[in-house]
Design brief:
With about 500 residues, the protein is of the alpha/beta class. The protein has helices at about 15-30, 70-80, 115-120, 125-130, 135-140, 145-155, 160-165, 170-185, 195-205, 220-235, 275-285, 290, 295, 340-345, 370-385, 440-460, 475-495; strands at about 10-15, 30-35, 50, 55-60, 65, 90-95, 95-100, 120, 215, 240, 245-250, 255-260, 265, 270-275, 305-315, 325-330, 335-340, 355-360, 395-405, 425-430. The chain folds into 3 domains: about 5-50 and about 220-300 and about 415-460, 3-Layer(bba) Sandwich (FAD/NAD(P)-binding domain), CATH 3.50.50; about 90-215 and about 475-495, no CATH class; about 305-405, Polyamine Oxidase, Chain A, domain 2 (Alpha-Beta Complex), CATH 3.90.660.10. Bound molecules: flavin-adenine dinucleotide.
Length: about 500
Amino acid sequence: MSEASQGKRVVVVGAGWAGLGATYHLAKQGYNVTLLEAGAYPGGLVAGWKTAAGRSVEAGIHGFWYPYKNIFSLINELGISPFTTWTRSSQYSPAGLEVESPIFQDLPRLPTPLGTFLYTQFKRLPLIDRLSALPLLYTLIDFDNSDAAWRRYDCVTARELFKDFGVSARLYRESFEAMLLVGLFAPGEQCSAAATLGMLYFFILAHQPDFDVVWCRGTVGEKIFRPWMERIEKAGARVLANRRVTDLIVDNYSQVTGVVCGDEVFDTDAVIFAVGITGMKKMISSSPSLQSREEFRNLSNLGAIDVLATRLWFDRKINIPRPSNACFGFSPTTGWTFFDLNALHDEYHDEPGTVVEADFYHANQFLPLEDEEIVSIVQRYLTSCVPAVQSAKVIDHSVIRLPQAVSHFAPGSYRFMLPAKTSFKNVFMSGDWIINRHGSWSQEKAYVTGLEAANLVISSLGEGTPANILPVEADELHIQVARAINQTVRQIGNSVLPNFWLP
Ligand SMILES: Cc1cc2nc3c(=O)[nH]c(=O)nc-3n(C[C@H](O)[C@H](O)[C@H](O)COP(=O)(O)OP(=O)(O)OC[C@H]3O[C@@H](n4cnc5c(N)ncnc54)[C@H](O)[C@@H]3O)c2cc1C
């Protein structure tokens, strides 16, 4: 029996970034961890696998941005080098090339957001439209990721926010909404203004280099999760695939003592949920114990968004100017990205033809189409950006439909999202939709919340050392000063004005 298996028992549910992060840390601390995953592979939304023909595919290409400090630290700990160098990106509309981004960390650093504003190369958007973003700077100061700020901004839509602050129609359509469609996976009228400000600040505005990005030189499954899983299993964790959790067993003291998975029951001292919104809703529908709690019943007010990941193999070499590209304006409520995998993935460097990944977010209307219809739309869209695609022949393709897959930060959703601690004493939440104050988003947030949940288990069960979670880089000095002044003015206002108006 290994040392780990003698420790207190923890069941982690879901093997995405959050669940793997929690499992790895707790296993290293000597806990007896069982990780239950409903799917056939670990990785969650980032899972990768091989087709019957032996080709690598995955549920969408994933970028790792400059502020993903905790993931980069994990990569160092694992001693692997899965990433490309920092890459430049382009943005296209049906009219052609719209924007080119430099590698911001290579340029002289300016106080934020000047570098983003001056160094981004807009090809068409007039200066007057870009300048109409200036009044929005106030919201950058006012939204400080606190609970109060989320409550002030969450019931407002992103579109209303930009309208109220005087953003031009063209800047909204061609820049902000374009970013929302690929950042929060939804059009502006369906995004919470709080989530919008939090996401834009983390990925783009907090510090000049934040928008710099690296990609995996293969699927994330192959390059990161495979070596990580080896370390997780070596640390003593038991990872069980094809195990869909359906219920919890709860004692009279509000402690969970078992996790039910079909006919199996896993006895436990603590539980970490690391499941997306749709998975959680499905689990609640089969679980009388979860249905008995208001906070879990309320999750039926949350939603998720359809995504489509396609990979096309072309018969010839096509010159694609930049390896990663974002696109807007092809359909009013769908954003998409495309990637030159010959440039990004080791496996395709020497491919005689071209391999392109095209991922569609808020792809509701595409999901019912046949694969062939989807492939023909993708080729048509790609041709608008890279005309040489038109004459190339698609010799193979993969189409992965991901219904209700990614978290929807809809207006008004904050009040129903869960913090890490629940009304069960020994059940903790993690995942990219959980309320925390770290300030990160997407994969980095999922991983951080996994570590935060592991730390709550450690403080509740009293064994082991908490994970060292790296904070996001501090706000720049001028932002700190402006936020302090703004908070003081708010406090004075709150102390003299009646609590009468909507926040
Ligand atoms: C196409 C696409 C592109 C994206 N691009 C990026 C990007 O470029 N950069 C970035 O940082 N992020 C990106 N994201 C978002 C990123 O994938 C997520 O933020 C992150 O993977 C979420 O991790 P998670 O651990 O919270 O949840 P998930 O990855 O959703 O993992 C949850 C796991 O729980 C399992 N599960 C569900 N129900 C049960 C049950 N009852 N029992 C047991 N297991 C269960 C699921 O099978 C799943 O494996 C993208 C997402 C998509 C879909």
